[in-house]
Amino acid sequence: MPLAGPPVPSHLVGQSFVKCAFDKLKEYRKSVFLIDESTNKQYTYENVLQMSTSIAVKLQKLGIRENVVVSSLIDNNVEAISFQLGLWFSGGTSNPVNHFQTSAEVRANIMISRPAIIFCGNQYLSMVEESIKNIGWDITIITKHKEPQYLSFDELLNEDVSKFSVTIDDPANHIPVVLFTSGTTGVPKAVKIKDSTMIVFPTAASLDKSTRTLLTSPMFWVSNCFVITKTIFCNKTFILPTQTDAEGLLKCIDKLKPGFWFTSSSPLLEMCLLPNLHEYDTSSIKYIFMGGSFTSTDHKHLICKKVFNNRNILLSGYGSTEVGIVSQNFKELPVNTRMYEGVGQISHGVTLKIVDLTSGKELGPGEDGEICVKSHCFMAGYMNKDLENTELDSEGWWHMGDIGHYDESGYLYFTSRLKEIMKFRGVQIAPAELEKILYKHPDVIEACVVGMQHDIDGEWPTAFVIKQSNSSLTEKELCKLVEENVADSKRLRGGVHFVSSLPKNAVGKVVRKELLKSCNT
């Protein structure tokens, strides 16, 4: 019997997310919308409403209407957020692009999303210009600061907004956002996110104990949309940090006292390594919602102990760009419970089942299989790409490509990515199982296990480990630790490589194929 989360609140069904966001800006106009640490400047909801409304009018004059795509390559700042809101109010579709890519990769993205306009930070202008050479259609470029041949952000702010109103003619088929997947298991795909998905975001993760949200998710992450939507609908304040390295974030937390933060575990683990961590006050943080990649229980314990003075404030979740938030912890869980190891209960509008990897038969509690989902937040599809029947089956179940199980209480547990499974002489081995054991050693900060190719055995589990500075931990000790906790087939036959860092993509996920290259050459 599939698990079902709570229904989507009836007052949200059929509503236009864009219209609701516009109304919230007007309703909360006197509240502080954003604090920019770099300038110490505050912006009210009214300030941002004025800017975004003028931008909407200008964009409509430039030909933007419902579902016309506008791409952006820009860092988090008040201009970027105001532009995105203005684009939404115009009816257009926002397509933030990963600016950490090469020009060729950006061009490949643009060829899929086919924007009419690109808004970019000036530091990314040369990349944009290179990316659109001989592109085949006209693209208007808008820059954050004035450039001789292009429109600038300030030139969007002089429109008459007295008669402006948000009109979305067809909310059911409106696409506010197109986001590219992280591409960890293949070529990035352009996901069309529906209006009805965005309107559900405010139902996730409580902000009751917090008035300020630390915003570190780049514009091209789905969590950025989640945080912006959640914060606006709840009348909260954004904090934009000057720096996003571990110590820079600690300085910002100490100074501006945010209460909520959506982040991956990476910056939190980096904080654990800082010798001067004790100098910073993190007591203002009431909730941290962790996403992007799976975080082990041992890492949760380490983060809570070292960064937050043993306060249990971490909320785990699970989902994807295609289906939204599948599960989440709606409240803090006692650290000594089995549920603390999981990724939460099923979210609003989601139905989930676990199926056997071979037969496709539905499995029960405690049985590992592939996670399959039906969701109110399911995407409108990919741009210029048909869905494969291996992803969406004939009964409408979306196959997540992840292995996991649920318990009798309805809590979901993540085991491993299906494509990361190794095989030793036909025996399937989940990297996460071995990584969990490695994390039991107090000197292990981060670990990743991949399969080193072997002519006879297939693959040998091989570990890449970041250990505590000044640690005397040896390869032999870790191999013995794993050997004592697993069957013979799962031993670290490929050994342990101690490294100073692990390769990660812009979403903070370890790029396993880079590690595979290093151990298979």
UniProtKB/TrEMBL annotation:
A GO cellular component annotation in the UniProt record: peroxisome
Keywords tagged on the record: Ligase, Peroxisome
The organism of origin for this protein: Cimex lectularius
Residue ranges of every copy of the AMP-binding enzyme C-terminal domain listed in the record: 433-509
Subcellular location: Peroxisome
Lineage: Eukaryota, Metazoa, Ecdysozoa, Arthropoda, Hexapoda
Protein name per the record: Luciferin 4-monooxygenase
Residues covered by the AMP-dependent synthetase/ligase domain: 26-382
PROSITE patterns in alphabetical order: AMP_BINDING
Family statement drawn from the similarity comment of this UniProt entry: Belongs to the ATP-dependent AMP-binding enzyme family.
Molecular function as annotated in GO: CoA-ligase activity
Alphabetized InterPro entries for the sequence: AMP-bd_C, AMP-bd_C_sf, AMP-binding_CS, AMP-dep_synth/lig_dom, ANL_N_sf
PANTHER family linked to this entry: AMP-BINDING DOMAIN-CONTAINING PROTEIN-RELATED, LONG-CHAIN-FATTY-ACID--COA LIGASE
Keyword Cytoplasm in annotation: no
Coiled-coil parts of chain: none
